Amino acid sequence: MSVIDILTRVDAICKKYDKYDIDKQRGDSNVSGDDAFARLFSVVESDIESALEKAETAAGEKNRAAAVALNAEIRRTKARLMEEVPKLEKLALKKVKGLSREELAVRNDLVLALPERIQAIPDGSTTATKQKGSWSASASRSEIRIETSSGIKAFRQEYEMRKMKQDQGLDVIAEGLDTLKNMAHDMNEEMDRQVPLMDEIDTKVDRATADLKNTNVRLKETVTQQDLAEENQGIKDILQSQHCIEEMNCPSEVFCCLFRLTRAGGSSRSGGQPACATDSGAKHSLDESHHSTVPRV
């Protein structure tokens, strides 16, 4: 066994049991208290190590169902880790107090190497990258450097900017939908309040319609009674005139009575003077006409 293999194994064992070192955890928390990149990167590193351990367990598992379950869990972990890569890319570009430009460049290189490390974790699929030996996968990848051109960086920045704009647009759409939802809720409440009022209006309209029908019926009865009263008055006048004719002895008095009744009917219809004011003149004219027509003896 060479010295390089021994150092690699020692490094892997130290990383495996670093989480049990309380003093180191306290020191790391104090150093990276304000460094979000360091915290997130350490979590991703621990998840990668855990996924590698599960991959080793799944490779040596004799129970096929247990191996399939472990591989499915590894694939879910890989998908979750791939979602963390864009966040690390954003955090790697931020300046942190106490870090030099070289350290920021190293961070960028570490982030660029993460997708390859995540995809290299065996998950039981045919597309997984096969590793030779159980220790080579857990070796440190901090020395890997990937040369990137300015075009790739510009494309990545443009992608991030468009993604941010899309997120902002989705946030605006979500706010608009919330506003519409609140408006619909308010409209439903207002409709619920207006329903009793509409029912009351319908009741009042029905009541007014019934009252109007009753009023029309009463008015019709009143008009009918008035017409009957006028007809009865006319009949009374005719009967009185007949009675007057029967009691009279001379034709002049008959003509006078008929003339009086005729004038009375005309004055009552036209609103003129009563017939009593001209009874004497009418009687005198009728007497003259009667005497002129009676032959002399």
From TrEMBL:
Residues 281-291 have a biased composition (Basic and acidic residues). It is a single-pass membrane protein. InterPro entries: T_SNARE_dom. Residues 265-297 are annotated as: Disordered. One of its GO terms (cellular component) is plasma membrane. Residues 160-222 form the T-SNARE coiled-coil homology domain. One of its GO terms (biological process) is intracellular protein transport. Keywords: Coiled coil, Membrane, Protein transport, Transmembrane, Transmembrane helix, Transport. CDD domains: SNARE_Qc. It is found in: Membrane. Part of the t-SNARE complex. Vesicle trafficking protein that functions in the secretory pathway. This is Syntaxin-71.
